[in-house]
């Protein structure tokens, strides 16, 4: 029987970044699935989001295209980034002093909203658009506003969630049910006991 605590667990940062990646899997964007997870100072998740069109703007009617002769037929004018959705989805009064975990370095528009919502730190995974103006502008604003940003290097390249790996027979969070005894045996032993303790 295992009595020592398990050591092969994921740490907090891995856990929150993994949540951002899991949320990303909800995105219908054919080219870029991004997720964001906001965590408060008590390490509680207060918001999660992924990139998608606003409520009521159907994934089947609005364009997911990145290029078109008509800008109105590209996704850029319509899509809400994961960072914004995570902030708007918050289940707390505000996200002051929170940390945001996000797959891609935020763009300048998200950076503005991150700063204005008083998020204190951004932990990101990829900075693949580092050379682009919107990332340069985002970093300039983060630096000016004192928002810390840190690139996350995961200790594991994969975290596998396998619904079939659990051995349900050995899984037990509550103590074993005591064996049922025959109530008649109980009465007998009780009467023996009272006889013994009698005058
Ligand atoms: Zn953005």
TrEMBL record:
Domain of life: Eukaryota
Broadest EC class assigned to this enzyme: hydrolase
PROSITE patterns per record: CYT_DCMP_DEAMINASES_1 (PS00903), CYT_DCMP_DEAMINASES_2 (PS51747)
UniProt keyword list: Hydrolase, Metal-binding, Nucleotide biosynthesis, Zinc
Reaction(s) this enzyme catalyzes, per UniProt: dCMP + H2O + H(+) = dUMP + NH4(+)
EC annotation from Swiss-Prot or TrEMBL: 3.5.4.12
A GO biological-process term: nucleotide biosynthetic process
Record Gene3D superfamilies: Cytidine Deaminase, domain 2
Cofactor: Zn(2+)
Gene Ontology molecular functions: dCMP deaminase activity; zinc ion binding
InterPro entries: APOBEC/CMP_deaminase_Zn-bd, CMP_dCMP_dom, Cytidine_deaminase-like, dCMP_deaminase-rel, Deoxycytidylate_deaminase_dom
Ranges of residues in domain CMP/dCMP-type deaminase: 11-149
Transmembrane residue ranges: none
Region feature (Disordered): 177-199
GO cellular-component term (any): cytoplasm
Its biological purpose: Supplies the nucleotide substrate for thymidylate synthetase.
Family under the similarity heading: Belongs to the cytidine and deoxycytidylate deaminase family.
Protein's name according to its UniProt entry: Probable deoxycytidylate deaminase
